[in-house]
């Protein structure tokens, strides 16, 4: 007959300091800067992720607002959601023809900062951020920020049918943990939610892989990658 191990068999946590919420300052990389969402970003976001890009909203829980005023109301709703736990960022290009323009949103949810120190990362990208160095840098910047703020665990949750999101999570180094069945109802349809995470002991390797992948030397003259981030991460094991 199997016997449960005693609770003392679990690992002792030496770092018991609380985690901290992200501050108001921008988070800046080589390709993008993440600015706290304000109304000044609304026109760019309407142009780049608004109703003209309905395909971007396929897996989002809400329908795309159909007019500029309704879109502004929707984003104002996000502003009202920003509390001590949630930071919403506009993703802004630092160079190129879209320099200074917002092309997406990024979300950093910081939970249980005094106890469990869990954070969650989310993104809503316009087309210019899909499959790009800039888009990958967003995940790197927010992941690094949240672990620097003493979180133990970074989560990524997505609709189980959203294969692109699941592949992105795995590409970034998140580990699949399972699927919550009938977790939500989105747009009148069932949603099973797949859960992924990176924990603090895994982040140094993931961080190094991000940094090596993002280096200029990893791209040819046509900006095609030479090594996949998964290959780089595997080489670091």
Describe the structure.
This protein is α+β, with helices and mostly antiparallel strands. Helices cover 28% and strands 27% of the residues. It has an 8-stranded mixed beta sheet, sandwiched between helices. The longest helix is centred in the middle third of the chain and has 16 residues, at 133-148. The radius of gyration is 19 Å and the shape is globular. The model has no long low-confidence stretch (mean pLDDT 95).
Q: What is the compact description of this entry?
A:
The mean pLDDT is 95.
Helix content: 25-40%
Q: Low-confidence spans: pLDDT under 50, at least 5 residues? A: none
What is the rounded distance between the termini? 37 Å
β-strand number = 8
The biggest beta sheet, please?
A: 8 strands, mixed
Mean pLDDT: 95
Q: Taking Cα atoms only, what radius of gyration do you get, to the nearest Å?
A: 19 Å
Strand percentage, roughly? 25-35%
Strand order of the largest sheet: 1-2-3-4-5-6-8-7
In sequence order, what are the helices and strands, one letter per element? EEHHEEEHEHEEHH
Dominant shape = globular
Secondary-structure class: alpha+beta
Separate helix tally: 6
């Amino acid at each position: 007959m199997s016997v449960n191990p005693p609770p003392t068999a679990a690992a002792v946590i030496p770092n018991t300091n609380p985690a901290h919420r992200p501050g108001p300052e921008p988070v800046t990389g080589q390709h993008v800067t993440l600015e706290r969402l304000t109304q000044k970003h609304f026109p760019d976001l309407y142009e780049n992720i608004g109703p003209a890009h309905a395909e971007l909203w396929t897996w989002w829980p809400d329908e795309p607002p159909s007019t500029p005023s309704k879109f502004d109301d929707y984003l104002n709703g996000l502003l009202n959601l920003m509390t001590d736990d949630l930071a919403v960022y506009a993703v802004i290009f630092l160079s190129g023809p879209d320099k200074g323009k917002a092309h997406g949103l990024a979300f950093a949810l910081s939970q249980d900062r005094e106890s469990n120190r869990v954070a969650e990362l989310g993104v809503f990208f316009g087309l210019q951020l899909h499959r790009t160095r800039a888009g990958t840098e967003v995940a790197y910047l927010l992941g690094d920020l949240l672990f620097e703020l003493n979180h133990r665990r970074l989560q990524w949750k997505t609709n189980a049918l959203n294969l692109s999101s699941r592949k992105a999570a795995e590409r970034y180094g998140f580990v699949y943990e399972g699927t919550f069945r009938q977790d939500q109802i989105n747009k009148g349809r069932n949603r099973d939610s797949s859960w992924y995470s990176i924990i603090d002991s895994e982040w140094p390797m993931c961080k190094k892989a991000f940094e090596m992948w993002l280096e200029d030397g990893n791209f040819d003259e046509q900006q095609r990658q030479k090594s996949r981030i998964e290959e780089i991460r595997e080489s670091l094991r």
